[in-house]
Amino acid sequence: MSLKRPASLAQTSDLAQRYAQIRAATMALAADLSDADATVQSMEDASPAKWHLAHTTWFFETFILAPSMAGYRLFDDQFGFLFNSYYEAVGARQPRPRRGMLTRPSLDRVKDYRAHVDAAIAAFLERDVDHKVGALMTLGLNHEQQHQELFLTDILHLFAQNPLRPAFKSPEPLAVGEADAVELSWTAFDGATETFGHDGDGFAFDCEGPAHEAVLCPFSLASRCITNEEWLAFMADGGYRTATLWLSDGWATVQQEGWAAPFYWEQRDDGWWSMSLRGMQPVDPAAPATHISYFEADAFASWAGARLPTEYELERAVRDVEIAGNFADSGRLRPAPGPTDADGLTQLYGDVWEWTRSPFTPYPGFRPPDGAVGEYNGKFMNGQYVLRGGSCATPPNHLRATYRNFFQPEKRWQFSGLRLAKDV
């Protein structure tokens, strides 16, 4: 997370332009939300939209403006407590499970906070900045893009709790069932000792590096993600009732939570529907299955006579692939059926985050950065699994072949799905 030399005026201009674009994209997400929409917290794992807007602003104020801009005055000295997320080095904070108690400040007050910080950043970037500040700015922008995705997944969870099932975007039903999914095929890869992880050229999150060697045994990857139609077959065959398919903790979770279908699914007289950012929609048989946990993905793979890929296998598969797919900017905000005219591997980026069987642990030689930003990823490297590839809620221009997302194995509210792998 560093720039190799002091930022030039041209680089500073690029930072200013990118800052304006990303901050505007966040505000566009909130354009149609009421103060009530933006305040409620639907579960401990989610944060209110208002909190996302303020926290991403707090990041720039705390790590850029307060230490580096002469004469900068905090917008409100109480906001450091309210909108710090988990940075112990920065100080005390509002407990995460109680972020929904922040009925004040109002949404308008938070918007004023953003405007205040945006104006200060614009003035700050009128001069050249050194490499450390440039690196922190770049980190802050990528951090905001992460929160844009969380904004969408958290709003979806919130609206799914409302009996009116409101739509975040226009609720017109999306076309479903117009095409069959492409038949699943397999692509084989040779075994080899190869280099994985980010090489340090350009931005990456700390957990993506350092680059290191790892051994791959020969393997095959499925050509596309598993579809809703295939998930329905798993359900019909008793997948949620067959203990031998499940990891022990997964089976215990199925029993405790009563899982019988992916999250947000609801059976009606005319078939299965699911809650989406466009309201309730019919389940599209040809689209990738989503809102499934690691436990469910692993059970499906066992049922299918396959396994989940490792993160190295997916990184090897996407290394030379263009980063393109169904991302948040498509406006669909829901996984889409894969292309019908493509050969080989498809849907490697976008649509759904793909669970891997790899635990989220440090790469050989990993060291967190110095200072408070060293708390960014390293402190979460236990009890979680890696996902790769992005989703229909991921901002464009945010991903890399080395990008590592991570969640606990029981989580289902993200746009998470799976692709199968096999040993050769």
Topology (elements, then pairings):
Layout: H1 9-29, H2 35-39, H3 49-68, H4 79-83, H5 107-124, H6 131-161, E1 186-189, E2 192-196, E3 212-216, E4 219-222, H7 228-236, H8 248-257, E5 265-268, E6 271-276, E7 279-282, H9 294-303, H10 311-318, E8 353-359, E9 385-388, E10 405-407, E11 416-417, E12 421-423
Question: Can you characterise this structure?
Answer:
- It contains ten helices and twelve strands.
- With 424 residues, it is an alpha+beta fold.
- The chain has two domains: 9-161; 186-423, paralog of FGE (formylglycine-generating enzyme) (Alpha-Beta Complex), CATH 3.90.1580.
- A four-stranded mixed beta sheet has the order 10-9-8-11. It has a three-stranded antiparallel beta sheet with strand order 1-4-12, with helices on one face. Strands 5-6-7 form a three-stranded antiparallel beta sheet.
- The radius of gyration is 22 Å and the shape is globular.
- The chain starts with 8 loop residues before the first helix and ends with a strand.
- Residues 1-6 have low confidence and may be disordered.
